[in-house]
Task: structure prediction
Amino acid sequence: MSMKLYVGNLSYEMTEEQLNTLFSEAGEVTSAKIINDRQTGQPRGFGFVEMETKMEGQKAISMLNGRSVDGRPLAVNEAKPQQKGSFGSGGYRQ
Result:
């Protein structure tokens, strides 16, 4: 069973390929995605990495959480499930 990780405090210059390479130190990476701002297209400084197994996910957390990459300490932990309706429902309703 795979494990999805949240990765915070990324350098704005980091690419998805570099993120994938970094996490492959801990095991098989299924996917690596850096989140970009919808309006500017610029990176928002965080992303998600999916590891092949839960054991590899735990290994990635222990290896990479707090590690300095491009002068920034990474924040790596298990991603929380996205809640339905938490995005895109903006606006004022009476």
